[in-house]
């Protein structure tokens, strides 16, 4: 097979088998990277290693970088919202689906994640999604939904682990 005259294996080498590519349960995790992690090079090192692993280990899903954070959220004015306060200092929003090694490398350099981009087995989800707001949100949920009717994985009040 070829694409634009080049063998497909040149673009993204084919794994030796389906099982070689899909070896563990992953997710679509995101990380909010703050200015210091971006400027000191830690973010570049992690993202470069992800790109190298992507080709060498045949696990190229995709990696997305967004500059959609900051703005009004990073203004000095206090905004009373549910998001983790780590969003206030975020400079870069990274989405890098993959297995535990990818997820762990991203989480090591960030404090927050976007709720809609989750890793099913995330261990510190309450802190990553809601930060210091979690206790306040639990109080609101207890009043608004005392029977616990409205629930989902990693939502406020989720007791599953």
UniProtKB/TrEMBL annotation:
Superkingdom of this protein's organism: Eukaryota
Coiled coil: none
Single GO MF descriptor: oxidoreductase activity
Ranges of residues in domain Berberine/berberine-like: 119-154
Protein name (Swiss-Prot/TrEMBL): Berberine/berberine-like domain-containing protein
Organism: Chlamydomonas euryale
């Amino acid at each position: 097979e070829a694409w634009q005259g080049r063998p497909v294996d040149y673009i993204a080498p084919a794994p030796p088998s389906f099982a070689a590519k899909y070896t563990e349960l992953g997710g679509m995790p995101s990380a909010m990277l703050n200015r210091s992690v971006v400027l000191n090079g830690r973010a570049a090192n992690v993202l470069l290693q992800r790109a190298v692993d992507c080709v060498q280990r045949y696990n190229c899903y995709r990696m997305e970088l967004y500059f959609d954070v900051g703005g009004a959220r990073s203004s000095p004015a206090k905004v009373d919202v549910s998001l983790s306060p780590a969003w206030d200092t975020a400079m870069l929003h990274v989405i890098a689906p993959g297995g535990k090694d990818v997820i762990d490398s991203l989480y090591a350099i960030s404090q927050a994640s976007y709720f809609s981009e989750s890793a099913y087995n995330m261990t510190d989800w309450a802190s990553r999604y809601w930060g210091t707001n979690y206790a306040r949100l639990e109080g609101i949920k207890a009043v608004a939904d005392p029977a616990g009717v409205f629930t989902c994985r990693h939502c406020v009040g989720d007791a599953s682990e």
